[in-house]
Amino acid sequence: MDNIRKENPKEIIVGEEKFVVYIDEDKLQNRVKELAEQINNDYKDKFPVFIGILNGSFIFMSDLIKSVTVDCEVDFLRLSSYGDAKISSGKVRMVKDLNCDVNGRDVIVVEDIVDTGLSIQYLGKLMENYKPKSVKVISLLLKPDSLKHEVKIDYIGFEIPSKFVIGYGLDYAQKYRNLRSIYILSENGA
Ligand code: 5GP
Q: Has residue 4 been placed in a domain?
């Protein structure tokens, strides 16, 4: 099996489906820097804890944190909702809890994408139990037309249409997280 692809492919074929570049590497990097600057400004006298939601947020979190210039801590929490398909199971469960104590801390939850809002709503309730001083949410992507739950996202990278996307941490059946750009499912199949 030929398992090698070019570093920045224009399209990705998965069976009958085709994904095309939607947000390229430069655009992503520039926007991530802008978001970090906003956070630097908002948290200049604070010592926030960034909580990355695994697995999808790991690349975004890593790039974001490199442009954050305030002292901060980092931890991860893992949720499971999608399994290996493109459709959410509609149920969220925690698969890995926090290692740090966020009681009295300024927490910034880092998500890859908000779709229906179910995960963020679940996280909001979970965080309440941990009694942080404040909680803000940053998401690289938001599908505004897919929202089914009332959620407040404090920092948004890009609003996108309600279509499946992959790359830059986001998977399709656990693959394609290592793509440098965000790819969107094309109307015209493979
Ligand atoms: P929500 O709970 O808001 O419906 O969904 C949030 C989670 O669903 C995200 O953290 C992500 O794991 C997954 N998700 C939602 N939309 C997409 C998408 O277009 N592509 C991928 N790869 N995952 C998605």
A: no
Q: How confident is the chain (190 residues) per 10-residue block, as mean pLDDT?
A: 78 94 98 98 97 96 98 95 62 91 98 96 95 98 96 97 97 95 90
Print the domain residue range for 137: 26-161
Quick one: which of 116, 130, 46, 54 has its CA closest to 88? 116
Q: What is the rounded distance in angstroms from the CA atom of residue 57 to the CA atom of residue 159?
A: 16
| Cα Dmax for the chain | 53
Answering whether pTM is above 0.90, one says: yes
The closest-lying atom of ligand 1 relative to the alpha carbon of residue 148 is 4
Q: What pLDDT sits at residue 3?
A: 73
Give the strand pairing for 165-166 and 182-185.
Answer: antiparallel
Domains held by the chain: number: 1
Instruction: Give the distance (Å) from ligand 1 centre to CA of residue 132.
Output: 25
Q: Helix, strand or coil for residue 80?
A: strand
- Pocket of ligand 1 from Cβ distances under 6 Å: 56, 81-82, 88, 111-119, 164-166, 170-171
State how far the Cα of 93 lies from the Cα of 61, in Å rounded to an integer. 21
